[in-house]
Write a structure and sequence with these properties.
Low-confidence stretches: none
Largest sheet: 7 strands, mixed
Helix content: under 10%
Number of strands: 11
Shape: globular
Strand content: over 45%
Number of helices: 0
Length: 128
């Protein structure tokens, strides 16, 4: 099974940028739609964005559109989340997850129940 690992988090001033990466140390994630979720203290894990397994179709939640970009490099078995113009409210632990169904071509999932193989997360803290 895929063992995911997120990296790239850190402490950044509002308006700054970070790029998160998600890799797998087990099964390749090339055939899975991959999503980013985040969880702030005391809140539920929420959807941030997803990209299809082919890397053609990214989809982001409205609050990050125009600031975040999701992409992938299947040759490197890595998924990225480029975060620009960061806001204090973006502070959270960010997780990547693989869709439960490989090679899924339907409507991209934005529910946590549709994903598995979570990593340990990477902390993003934005200060004003």
């Amino acid at each position: 099974q895929a063992q995911l690992e997120e990296s790239g988090g850190g402490l950044v001033q509002a308006g700054g940028s970070l790029r998160l990466s998600c890799t797998s140390s087990g099964r390749s994630i090339r055939i899975y739609n991959m999503a980013w979720f985040r969880q702030a203290p005391g809140k539920e894990r929420e959807f941030v964005g997803v990209i299809d397994w082919n890397g053609d179709i990214p989809y982001l939640r409205d609050s990050v559109k125009g600031r975040f970009t999701i992409s992938r490099d299947n040759a490197k078995d890595t998924v990225y989340l480029q975060m620009n113009s960061l806001k204090v409210e973006d502070t959270a632990t960010y997780y990547c997850g693989a869709d439960r169904e490989p090679l899924y071509t339907g409507r991209l999932h934005d529910s946590i129940r549709d994903y598995e193989y979570w990593g340990q997360g990477t902390q993003v803290t934005v200060f004003s």
